[in-house]
Amino acid sequence: MKSEAITIKYDYITNVIYSDVFVDLHFEEGHSQRQGNINCFRGLWDTGANITGISSRVIQALNPQPFGATHIKGTNGDRDETTYLISLGLAPYDTTLIIPAIEVSHCDFGGRADVLIGTDVIFLGDMAITNRKNQTWFTFRAPSLQRFDFKTVKIREDAGCTCGSGRKYKNCCK
Predict the structure, then answer these.
(1) Dist. CA 121–CA 87, nearest whole Å
(2) Reduced to 3 states, what is the DSSP secondary structure of residue 170?
(3) What are residue 68's DSSP bridge partners?
(4) Fewest CB atoms within 10 Å of the CB: 15, 19, 42, 47?
(5) Cα 161 to chain centroid, rounded
(6) 162 with 154: CB under 8 angstroms?
(7) 115-117 and 18-25: which strand pairing?
């Protein structure tokens, strides 16, 4: 399977990653039910969410048939929610990064976004976020192609601590 990727650049440091997402009724791979009607919504990437969620606004736009139910434990307590089977396209617009069938739950999360992209999507590939020179870069590709490995710098125990305390590493942050 060919890997596809998206990259989003912010001209500032951010602690919240948003992207456009395309949501459609579930379709078999290669056979879209879309009839010139692209449903674009704001997506929020959330590594703390186990299942991708869609808002009432998405449900009203698509009118999907209920698929099942799931139990959600969240910041607003525990609850049972209806699930739907949808197709999810990750933007920007020229991407072909499409998940043709994913079970999602109903989830309203304060109007910040209409799609909560959870680890069920994130674990399909590789994700990286970098902050450098007052910019945040977010990139995601699926399927995974390789492991990321940021090597740990080996610090001598008698060296000065990297936290800047002036103490030796072995007596400070070890």
Answers:
(1) 12
(2) helix
(3) 83
(4) 15
(5) 35
(6) no
(7) unpaired
What SS3 state is found at 171?
helix
Alpha helices in 23-163 (DSSP H): 56-62, 119-122
Strands 77-90 and 40-45: unpaired
Structure tokens at 90: 């990750």
Q: Among all chains, which residue has been given the structure tokens 């949808």?
A: 86
> pTM score, two decimals?
0.77
pLDDT by residue for the chain (174 residues), tens only, comes to 577 888 999 999 999 999 999 888 876 555 544 544 568 899 999 998 889 999 999 999 988 889 998 888 776 678 888 999 998 888 765 556 888 889 999 987 778 899 999 999 999 999 999 999 999 999 999 988 887 777 666 667 677 776 777 888 777 765
**Two tokens at 78?**
């525990």
Name the strands in the sheet holding 4-10, side by side, starting at the edge strand that comes first in the sequence.
4-10, 135-142, 126-132
